[in-house]
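Entry 12.
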Amino acid sequence: MQLNITKPLQILQWSAYIYILILVKGFIIFPIAILLFNDFYLRLLPSDSSQWVPLSKFNVEEFDEGIEFFQKIERIPIEWDIPALPDNGIPESIPLRDHISYKMDFDMNFFCISPTKNLGYTPSGISELVLEIHSTERKQSLIFKRNIPILCMTNGDNIVEDELYDQGPSRISLYEKEWINHIKIHDKVDIGPEDNEIKYIWTIRSESPRILFNLESGFRLRMNFEQGLRNLMLRWHKITYIIGVVVFDCAISTIFGIAVLISFYSLSNKLKSRSKKD
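Predicted 3D structure (tokens):
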């Protein structure tokens, strides 16, 4: 009885080829794609083109109806590096590049607590936040204003106790789920090269409100480039990295695949010519 082992050997051979290609793809091509795109990104967009500013870096002044944040801008010449802002809770001036316009995006998570039982505006606990951003260097200091509905806790408001079974023993996570307000505004505020101070004013139309901010709240200041593509790359930097690495990976894989096919083709032609001679 004869056994035909040609097919199993062919399957084993192709399996070995596929395994080698996966190893090359995962351990050689993909890391090279990451390194090349990272170098391309840093050459196109300098590392100091985007600056994250925690809310704790601002000076704070509270008044009856809200809160005001203000801080000086320190303009850094092109010859010097822009220092990073450590998130240590200590207010300090915001370093930005000299003679450059910036876009300011902000992402705020906060609780609003009102000491009264009834807000007087809406019985549901919804109040109105008036958000203003000022620059003291301009003739008209107000550069952005928006009225935003927010949810304020009042005396008698609480969490739904039944949801503690789903959230576990942490009551703060349940309060965050039910009562935290999230404000995210991108690509709306311009900081000009002449601006040397930012004022960020919150006014809540409620009786003596108290605002508690999440530690992750803050601003992102990014250079405003003339080319729209670079502005988009700065604004959506995570998506840009994913798409960029995939594109570089596909390009390198295509070049590698073409080189392998050409090598196999030329090698097979040489083997056929040798077999004909023999």
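Annotation: The CA atoms of residues 104 and 221 lie 5 Å apart. The helical segments are 6-44, 164-167, 171-179, 228-235, 237-277.
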